[in-house]
Give the backbone structure.
Amino acid sequence: MSVQTADAVSVNGNGHAPLDTKSLLEKIAALEARVEALEESPAQDIEDRLAMVVFSGDLDKAIASLIIATGAAAMGMEVSMFYTFWGLSVVKKKKSYDQKNILEKGFTAMLPAGTGGLGLSQMNFFGAGAKIIRKLMNDHEVASVEELFEMAQELGVRMVVCEMSRELLGVHDDELIDGLELGGVATFLGDAGSAKAALFI
Amino acid sequence: MSVQTADAVSVNGNGHAPLDTKSLLEKIAALEARVEALEESPAQDIEDRLAMVVFSGDLDKAIASLIIATGAAAMGMEVSMFYTFWGLSVVKKKKSYDQKNILEKGFTAMLPAGTGGLGLSQMNFFGAGAKIIRKLMNDHEVASVEELFEMAQELGVRMVVCEMSRELLGVHDDELIDGLELGGVATFLGDAGSAKAALFI
Amino acid sequence: MSVQTADAVSVNGNGHAPLDTKSLLEKIAALEARVEALEESPAQDIEDRLAMVVFSGDLDKAIASLIIATGAAAMGMEVSMFYTFWGLSVVKKKKSYDQKNILEKGFTAMLPAGTGGLGLSQMNFFGAGAKIIRKLMNDHEVASVEELFEMAQELGVRMVVCEMSRELLGVHDDELIDGLELGGVATFLGDAGSAKAALFI
């Protein structure tokens, strides 16, 4: 057997002496250490996921974020949307003035409730631009922003509302679209840290 | 033999008893499975790539996106730019009114064609701000936005125009800069999913 | 010998015939090559890091960026902020008009120096909106933007000022907050390329 082993080693080019088990085990142990380092590297946190902060309350940016979200979900990616600051307007379904202080009532009056009241980031012209974009999307058979939002929810897109923004702007739970989670910056960072891409919109 | 194996393992193979082949093969097979899991992890989709959505039609953001793009390309990264919504103004070279309906003619009239007509996101003052930024860049020998765009193309930056935005805004092919690709959200997501970083500008 | 090897391999070490050393070494070498490919893949550049470009000079976006930064730093992530263009207003502590040309003096006069002068991206109403947000944050015991900035610095967030923007806008060193680095697009790309997520704000 030692001769056979020696043959085997000699083919590997390093002479006739048999390679001892110790050397084999050392090679394997070295590999194990390298594989463990790879397994523990930050890259292994990455999943097939896309995370978005929707900070803006503009109709055009809401549409862009939802087209990206539904596209990604349709391609099989996990998608997380984190609605914060003005983005809360996108996920409001109605306005409520009950049990709000004067500042909260002011914000409620001035901020749109739901996608119907959103304007454009450019060329809005007091709402005319937003109406034109809506008409164009309809003419070209692109799903409306409300349809896109529903599609996103149906495709399992995780919809998170920033708890702190909700409190600052005095938005009550009954003003929000159904099926939303409440979360904080840690929620977003958890998803962004395991995402292939994170966008701030 | 089982005793010998135990000995061999206990001394990490530096005794004289041979470790049995079965144990060695099992160790190697376990490592192979772990390496395969690493090879199939989402992290392995990542390339040395940067992907950007240019949603904005503002001159300052166009400049920022192109400085980042040319910088990344010069550092050897693959770079993809995806021009969508108002970002189409950055990649238009002229205006054409032929065979457009009234809405498309309106957008053509009101949106800038090419970087010469772009304004600033802040401090624009009906174009004065944009002129000042251009003068400052010239005074400081920073490449102009047109030069940056050409540099980006020469450095092999992938320039993709959002097909849907092009249709919605009624932009015709002859209005676009040469050398652009047409693509959809899947094109962007393909590149963003394999990018080290993705930016929404 | 070939029969023995075939036996050994076919039964994966559970027969009595010894597998030859050559086969074991080949298996290990193949694994080593795969592990090396993994170690050299772009994914291994990724660290537990978040990188942000702060392009905007809006108070609300400055707040959002700092809440994300301090949250990430508190969770143990490395965080880098790259202040460019209008974002320089966030990291200015005062205005200085000495040794500036007329354009630089103009920018100095018109751009805010420090967070006290920042407006909102929406609903600013010549500063009233910004005051309301500040009051709301105070009422809800959320740290102010100045406190958030200090917290970020104390948590070790890397704060980089874009050298080129500083020159273009004629911002002098004595106008900047203490403890900032100067850097270029390569500085940002270095951090973004090793970050789990990069955001353009």
The radius of gyration of chain A is 28 Å. Helices of chain A lie at 2-11, 21-39, 59-74, 102-110, 128-139, 145-154, 163-168, 185-193.
